[in-house]
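[SOLVED] Need 3D model of a two-part complex

Original post:
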Amino acid sequence: MMIEAKSLTFTYPGAAAPAVHDVSFTLKPGRILGFLGRSGAGKTTVQNLTIGLLPLKQGEVLYEGRPVASLGRSFFEHVGVSFEHPNLYLKLTGLENLTLYGGLFSGPSLPAERVLEMVGLTDARHKRAAAYSKGMKHRLVFARAIMNRPDVLFLDEPTAGLDPDTSRRIKAIILEERQRGAAIFLTTHDMTVADELCDQVAFINEGRLIAQDAPRNLKLLYGERAVRVEYRRDDEVQAETLFLDRQADRSRFNELLDGGSVETVHSQEATLEQIFIKLTGRGLA
Amino acid sequence: MRGRSRLSALLRQDLLLAHRSGLFAIVLGLAVVLALVVNFALPTVIGLTAHEYVVDLAAGRPVARALEAAGRGDVLLASVDDLKRRVADDRSAVGLVFRGTPESPQVELHLQGSEPQATVNSLEAVASALWNRAVGPGPGSAHRLVELRPGSAKVPFNKDFVPILLVFEVVLLGFMFAGVMVFQEKAEGSIKAYRVSPAGPWPYIISKAAVNLTLSLVYGLLLVLFTLGPRPALLGVLGLVALASLLMTLFGLFLSSFYTGLSDFLYVLLLVIIVFTLPAASYFSPAFKLPLSEFMPSYPLLFGVRELAFPTGKTGFLAPMVLTLLAEIAVVAGLARWAVERKLLRGVL
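Solution:
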């Protein structure tokens, strides 16, 4: 299912300035679009506008060419949403949370036991959600979002607070969902996650999109072509950063390679974090 | 077909949550405690005053003999001084002193002085009735009793409380539990997950109403069985309980949709409790009616349940009352649907 958002602008009741201003993007099936920004930058507002939870005053959101407001509740048969803050029925077990939520959908859903196994919660399936750790709750919310095999998946900080193993498992599921053909809208402030998963990233700052492209293109556009070379001289390891667009640095690089003392060479492309800082003047954390 | 399955999933979820939140335990406990209060704490008869003392100095002591014959010799005292002392010692007591002859009876009332005129009038009537029963009606006595509904059962005072306990508890619990369910989902954030599911406002509303209906029927059934016993009117009484529960659950869902938490909602809850319990004043004192109280849904419900539980034959108002309640339920259901859609399922939470 293809999503087109055009010139989204939204002001919360009583607020002086818009939370989101003139945001546009396109998300195609089988692609992952990462929305990156600090807390309060407008990521969740864009998500809620795109899902149709907030009323659009300006701009439009189209799903396969149809305005989101015209789709009715059956639209949610095709949508999965994983929230940043766990929102579960705490008095129900993990299994009950999934089984009863799955009962709200008409289409074929993955069996609750299977989804619990995918996110590593099989052993805790009969425990009440209130007894889950933060990471376990997060996984259960993620499991709930994917169980109806959605065409569009909204993931808000899907790996926040997870240990590296579980994080890897969740990222693998997200890539499987993309492979299956789901269009995935991912909001995060974790640049590593965005770099690993996203086909496109959009930087949002104070409600405005400040850059949007494939991560590689952004790195090429905003980064510098440089290499960091470590070499040995007089039994000591020394390092130099050389910019390949400069004639002198290129000559020095060749000289070091010819000298045979080079131990490591690392490309010095800009990270998404560095690009974000360059564009906004501040970091993501 | 799919709608039924969706509703069934929601209903199972809400019943489980109600059970684990202790709502069934609360309702069961309340029914048992109130049944104990009705059966063992409230008196079956309540007198005009707390204590009455009688001294009979009339010729032949006819009143004293009549009271002793009726097994109420405990109220008789030997002297006026004793009566005065006891009335002075007990601020809830009154005294009656009979003197004279059957042809020329005299009665003295010894009062605290704070009794309302209606009580004084009633005591005068009691004194007159006691004398007439003891010596026969005098030449000035010409009253007779005519019962318009001779089939009406004499309702014991304690049992007369049952309609109040049924209607007001169901009204208040229906309203309050609806709020509790909504605020629990807001606090946990689980309503956000429901917002992005294909289930719309109706399954949400129907499921909550069905859970509250179940709780109300359990409460009503237990209270009636424990206090009045099994009786043919049980089904009718439970029918009215069901209507009360539906109306108040829908009203609770409508109003609670506008509030963020139970603490904000507390003022509304108190206001609703006060307004909806106003008809209780008219229940025991029909002459006392606060303005507009009869337009509260709890007013006709109260008298409807009483008529079904203790029939007097005055049933003409029941059918219009049920129709009015159904119309009110339809209107409030529409409001609840609008509020749930607008305030819970969309917009800023």
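Edit: Residues 224-268 of chain A form one domain.
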